[in-house]
Structures are given as C-alpha cells and as structure tokens.
Amino acid sequence: MRDLALEQLRSGKSLTGEGGVFAPIIKEFLESALSAEMENHLSEEERSKGNKRNGKGTKKIKTGYGTISIETPQDRHSRFEPEIVKKRQRILTDSLAPKIIGLYGKGMSLRDISSHIAEMYDTEVSPTILSEITDRIIPQVKEWQNRPLDDVYPIVWLDAMHYKVKDEGRVVSRAVYNILAINKEGKKSLIGMYISESEGAKFWLSVLTDLKNRGVKDILIACTDNLNGFSEAILSVFPDTEIQKCIIHQIRNSLKYVASKDQKSFMKDLKKVYRAVNKSEAETKLINLEEQWGKKYPIVIRSWNENWEELSNYFKYDEPIKKLIYTTNAVEGFHRQVRKVTKTKGAFTSDMALLKLIYLTTENIAKKWTRPLQNWALTLQQLCIQFEGRLNLKV
Predict the structure, then answer these.
(1) Cβ atoms within 10 A of the Cβ of 79, count?
(2) Which of 149, 275, 295, 389 could make an SS bond with 215 (beta carbons 3.0 to 4.6 A apart)?
(3) What does this protein do (predicted)?
C-alpha cells in the first residue's frame, strides 16, 4: 500500500479519488466495522429467535476521499441498525458535512458547493443531499434562538433587514428582526433574530416580550430607528429603558420633505443642532432652525420637536458613548456584513433557508466579537453612575 501511495504521488495522481490509495483503506475499515457491528447485533438472544446473517448488500458512500462502494451485511429479520454507516446514509458526515456547512455559511449556492466538492474530493454530491446536510443545523438554530440571556444589557440596537422568500409558489417579503447588544463585559452579541412578514411595532412588541421571557430583566439604552410605536413597544416591556432614536434616520426622513434646492442650506443649519456641544446649545440651535425653516417646512420641524427628547439623550454622555448610541450604525454595520454573504441570493426557498444562512453568517462574524469595546472600563463606569443600582457589577 505504501509503494502504491508513493507511485501515485510521483505520477501526480490523486490519492483520494477513484483508484486512489485511500479509497480501499476506507472501504476495508468500514466493511470490517460493519461486520463487527453485525456480530455484536447477533447476540445469543437474537440467534435464539432465529435471526442470523443473510448475505450482503452494496451501497455507495461519499467521503472526503472520494466515492466508495462498500458491502453491507444483512440479517434475516432486518433488525440490524448499523452505527458507523447508518441505513440510508449516503455520505460520511464526519468528513464532508462540516466542509459543506462551512461553504454554505459563506454564501455559496448548493450547486456551487456540489461543483466544489466534485473538484476537490472527486465526489459527486447532489444539491438535494446538500440541502439535507445543511438542514442538520436547524435544531442548532432553534436552540440558539431560544437560549437563555443575561439579566441586564447596557446597550442594545434594534433594526430589521428585508428579504424575498418563496411561499407556496409566490415570492413574498420577509423582515428579519435583529437585536445586537453590548453585554456587561463590553462584548457584542446578537441576542435575538426573528422573522416576520413585515416590520412593525406590534411584532417588535412580541420580540421584546420574548427577550424578557428568556431572562432579560433590564436594558439601559435602546437605540432604534424612527418606526412609529417603537418606543411605546419598548417601554411597555422595559419601562425604565432610555431610548435613543437614530439621528441619521431622522435626518434622512427630514430630507424627504425638503426641496432639493434647499437641502444644502437646510443641512448646514441642521448640523448645528445635532453637532452641538451640549443639549442646551442644541435646543437653542433647534429654535433657530425653526425660525429659519419652520414656515416653509413645518412638518419637518414638528417632527424634530416631537421626537426631541428621544433624539437628544446622547448629549448627556461623553464622546465614546455618544458615538455608540446616537445612530444605529452598529447594527447596520452588522447587516452590511450579512448582506455581503446573502447578496448573491435571489428569493430564498423558505423562511428557514433564510434563517439558516443568516445564523451561519452570524457565527462567522461573531468570531471577531471576543474582545470588549475599546475603553469599555471607562464607559462602564459612566453607565454605572448614570444608571445607579441597575448594573449589579461584581467587584
């Protein structure tokens, strides 16, 4: 066997494909193991019932070393349930399944994965089998969605992504609700991922209720977009939470109602409001903004006045915390990373197909979330003072 391996290496032939030296080794190992399992199955008690060996069948197994044809022992009563290669199993999961799931998590289509496996391992795996393999993470996804959470999160960002999914022959829209959080150690964590037909305060209420049921007792600061009813939904579940509405969303919504010829001048005055040194100065600049633009754009100015308390909470903090909370950039940045993987997809085949890919993508992204945010110790001290008695830190 060693001489054959050396010969194949010298000639440039694959050791793992058809005719490769590894194939007969794996074949011999599997057949010996199956024979031993059958011997163990045919105990004295089993034989006393008239059961015994009943010839052999054949099946093809796809492995990381190519496709291998093996002989499988059979018993007369058909009660033998092998473990190393289970009935109807067509692929050795320990060798290829992790690779397949890894490629799927990087956004490769099932057909592309099939081509890649064929090229790399001389093994043909159909898209149908690949789909069955990726479905094995479904229990893992559900367990992750329902895992217990910390009792307190200092900062959370809430936002939704939108996708197309096939549903009974139709292509429909789906909103994926994500809650990105900073825990007490200063590390990022996606604490919730939910799917619904559309984004709305009513569904956000059910999302927040689920967080509470999973152990969250308090959220110090919640950063959100300007969705109607969002604040009410948060406060109905976490009444002591401080809400910071996204300044960038407010600006975008404002500019929709400002004529293009006025936008440059309007933004020059608006920047003086949200870039003010403190809240007092910002409110003076907001009055000036109203005097300058209130008659021409009353709806825009009214929106800033009505939302001001939840737009201006960031002024009470120093620069590091301000940068964290005055926009929803943190969760939008996470969404951009997810879309790098999902952008090649058209409509997903199902809601679960969408959740599977986002979950696997999140697992890859989260590998970089092992360290606390920069200067987190100082940030935490400020939050402890601002929200006295609510963090319960162990010293």
Answers:
(1) 11
(2) 149
(3) Required for the transposition of the insertion element.
